[in-house]
beta-glucosidase
Amino acid sequence: MKFYLLTICILGSAIQMSAAGFVYKDKNASIQSRVQDLLLRMTLQEKIMQLNQYYYGNDGNDNNLIEYRHKIPPTIGSLYFVGNVQERNRLQRMAMEESRLGIPILFGYDIIHGYRTNFQIGLGQACSWNPALVENMYHFMARETRRSGVDWVFTPMIDVARDARWGRISEGYGEDPYVQGVMGSAAVRGLQGSSLATDSTVASCLKHYVGYGASEAGRDYFYTEISHQTLWDTYLPPYKACIDAGATAVMSAFNNISGVPATCNNYTLREVLRQQLGFRGLVISDWDAVPQLKNMGYCDNDRTAAAACLNAGVDMEMVSATYMKHMAELIERGQVSMDILDESVSRVLELKFRLGLFEQPYTREDYVPIYLTEDMMQCASELAAQSAVLLKNEHTLPLVNQKKIAVVGPLAKNARSLIGNWAGYGRDEDVDVLYNGIVQEFSTTSEVRYAEGCGLESQHDADPKRGWSAITDTIAHEVEALAEAVSLAQWSDVVVVCLGEKAGWSGENCSRSSIALPRCQEQLVEAVKQTGKPVVIVLSNGRPIELCRIEPMADAIISIWQPGVNGASALAGILSGRINPSGKLAVTFPYTTGQEPIYYNRRKASRGGHQGRYQDVTSQPLYPFGHGLSYTQYSYSNEKIEKNADGWEVSVEVSNMGLVAGDEVVLWYISDPYSTITRPERELRHFERIHLAPGERRLCRFHINPMRDLAFTDDKGQPILEQGVFRVLVADKTLELKL
Ligand code: NOJ
């Protein structure tokens, strides 16, 4: 025994000695000591290089306007990577073998809702109200991404968005801070798993910090006017939730927050993010955002911009290289301290250690197919089914007795639009188009025929400057296409009109002054409606759509968002009744664009009734937050509230009163009628998705923790819990409690 112990001691000290000079290379040493050891060995130049992300490979994104670099220094910290596994390994080999210290490169990329296997977009995911399924989706996405050579994704986007003119509303989880936090946390867990050092997990990046969704008039990159109160109660809660869920990185936003740009905002980045929210991970700027401080009139040159950003706590600069050019001089002049620099470098190194890049810098080149696999396709289909929202149904769906189905509209055979924006390496040929799904679904019961009817937009709208003869040709062609759709409608028992948005109409830099469909799409609905046949509108959309003119003509409307590669069979299943729709809106559909921004949880107004209303249109939205129909009916009864040791237990029985099984999403809201800082009419605090067979009843509960659910925050982030009456709302039930 003694001999055994002695051997262990000798061996132990030998390992320590062999690792003594190179603690950072010792995989058994703690990450903290590895970072410290490496930092001590680095020259100033090597440190500065770690804070740069270069653009490698052109991703064809019009917004990523910058020269990409073919010559990559072996000491570069990170690459915005557009490439393949072999190229990654070649570049990584260069970093490992040609740089003095062999520090691996961190490969990051915009994988937003899929690498090649594209899933539902963020806004659609939120309408599923199924965080477990969303987590699973991100797990599949992470697996494909990491095995394709990318370690870090710029996902999830958790910007609360309340103006549907803003194109980026498609990327996040809607208008409610709580939903953003729950879904964002699910994304973080799915992407990161329990360890980053695996071949199936990636580092996540929360974006865009902070308040980017408040862009004035829905214009992208625009000014945002955000009081500290609104910052704390609306825009920060999702970040808090996702940081608590373990997110590894944060991206600063492009917007100017009430005078100080988000990219160098000391208050939001240092005081709030680091000190109050306790974030310990890496902060990266957005694309080229550091030199853009000049455009905003905040800095007069790149050097001061670099100093402002690093001093505010932006550790890494995305692509623009002002850190690389000016940091040495800034340190020399004392405008950035060595401590601040070291802190940022440490965060970059720590992430690389956590990802296991020092041990496994290369990606295996022999993975069997990692995209469009059966489990991924299944997940894409489930998510598409659960996120589709049945907005209207006048006894039309499901289609059970219709022998002749006319499928018309520009979205019926369009693959690209179904995978939406930021589609990674998605390909049109991977996507099952809606028409195919419908044909397959009804193959034994009905005849399905197709006519396009119109394009996504009229050629004239797309290019109004064309000559007169081109315009008359187009008009003739468009009239013919419309006539074909009308005659098909006349033949049919029901017309399914597939309308919506092009992939490029939502996403970054895709604001719209009107969120209505182009006129030609509305005309198609008018034309087929005149045949007297029932009209089902299927919408594929990256934002809420203004439907006020066509809604009265539709017998049913269903929004499928941009469901990705496997949305067609889900839609077809809903049309046939094989799937009972269960999605609910995580964002308000306005009646007209002029109502934007419109959201359910706005603060209360000083006058109600007929005052403060629009003179020209209703003041109500067309479809409110939480709206979504089903083929069955649920009833809520026996609501109860009970006090217990740490709060209240509220419960309600939910019953399926219809003849088909279904999933119901139970939404619990809190209302605080009077408070020293005014609050919205109601605020979502909890939700649950349940499955009920016909006739089945389920007890649903919400445990109210007063600090979490009844308190509100002041403009410094301090929680305030006030005494008095609170209401708890669920479906048509209201309960009261007194604190
Ligand atoms: C700008 C976008 O705002 C951000 O979301 C994205 O991750 C970067 N560009 C990189 O493409």
In short: The CA atoms of residues 287 and 543 lie 24 Å apart. Residues 468-491 form the longest helix (24 residues). Residues 375-595 form a domain with the Rossmann fold fold (CATH 3.40.50.1700). Confidence is low (pLDDT under 50) at residues 1-19.
